[in-house]
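User: Please run a holo structure prediction.
Assistant: Happy to. Please share the sequence and the ligand.
User: Here you go; the ligand is adenosine-5'-diphosphate.
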Amino acid sequence: MDWEPVIGLEVHAQLKTDTKIFCGCSTRFGAPPNTHVCPVCLGLPGVLPVLNRKVVEFTIRMGLATHCRIERESRFARKNYFYPDLPKGYQISQYELPIATQGFVTIQTDNGPQRIGITRIHMEEDAGKLSHAPDRGVSLVDFNRTGVPLMEIVSEPDLRSPKAAGAYLRQLRAIVRYLGICDGNLEEGSFRCDANVSIRPRGSTELGTRTELKNLNSFKFVEKALQYEILRQQEVLADGGEVVQETRLFDAGTQRTHSMRGKEEAHDYRYFPDPDLLPLVIEKEWVEAVSASLPELPEQRRQRFEKDLGLPPYDAELLTSTKEVADYFEECLGHGAQPKAASNWIMGPLMGLLNARGATADASPVPAKALAELLRLIDDGRISGKIGKTVFEEMAASGKPPEAIVEEKGLVQVSDTASIEAVVDKILQRHPQEVEAYRGGKTKLFGFFMGQVMKETRGKANPKTVSEVLNKRL
Ligand code: ADP
Ligand code: MG
Ligand code: ZN
């Protein structure tokens, strides 16, 4: 049987507001436990929640960036469950009437661009954080995170492979970062993903029974967990069994998923409109103002890099994957660099350097202006591309401008024919047998002579001139 995987993701993004969603407590991470709390977020009796306007604005931003309808009226609802990290015994979320609906994002797949539907985006509050100390026989709870604003983005079951799920997730993360509304860190939990997956015979239009995967705190784990789960479901069905709808936990150690609990249904949560919060009504003018303030988004930028700057699709995709890199690239162009040359140097040496240092492009040890100057030196034929790599390393190490390094180390490319001729003659005299063999038809030796000349000049000779002179002399 040829099975087709069907995947839908639920993503929780922590919004980068200064204060919590329904009270004035700070959202700052890393404070001593239970210091950013008040009667509202602790769920003490006799207090009322007040909605943070910024949370609404950020969610409108996301809704617009993903082509959603921004609903004029939405409602907050109580999602009831009992857990020690939830002091009120319910989470304030949105249920029947979310703020944004029916959007999409575009991802790049092996078969070209694909639209992934966004079912809904809603606002909700985060829960507290439990930590367990089994040696002391206690569990500890920190309520600092209780009431920190989250935005939940639910996709349609439109994804067809673990790789596509990864691409979708990367695209969403790029969007929230471009918008400046979430720092998008899976490892630290400010951007979390639950993956729903089922399989069905290819060609079928019905959905199979799904499982929901949790504990996916890196892009790699999302893809690994889905791969494992797709194979597991195939085996269950091949053995004549049935997939049970349930929540499964991914174990990064074994790279497997295991059953955590039966899937709860919506009615288990006894959702009802929160009587403490009025319906949220958003005026058209506000949506228009937010819309006018949106920055250029990754997808638009990718298209512009391809169409207007003539970059290959691969380059455009990679350069726009983070705003910092895309800004860096454009800053290089602003200083006169050619698009493709700048792209090559950014995708190669610069990204290598940033990865090694764990730095982002906006804090690059080699600033965009300096890289542009280096590219100019190469473009003008003052140094070779190969020497350029050496200069780049020196720039990264010392922070000196390329011009100074080239002067200091005497790296200027030698292009004048007379001095190159002198070196070529010397090399040919030194290797009479090879010259003989070359003239006898062993033309492969050309590379050997090139290498000798470059070595003799410590890489400074202009390869084009060397090749011309060699041809003439040989
Ligand atoms: P719940 O809120 O109970 O988790 P939803 O109906 O809101 O359920 O769906 C959650 C996610 O599961 C959505 O992203 C949706 O696309 C996805 N999904 C729903 N049905 C399936 C299915 N049969 N196979 C794969 N994904 C699915
Ligand atoms: Mg769910
Ligand atoms: Zn509070």
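Residues 10, 194, 212 surround magnesium ion (ligand 2) (CB under 6 Å).
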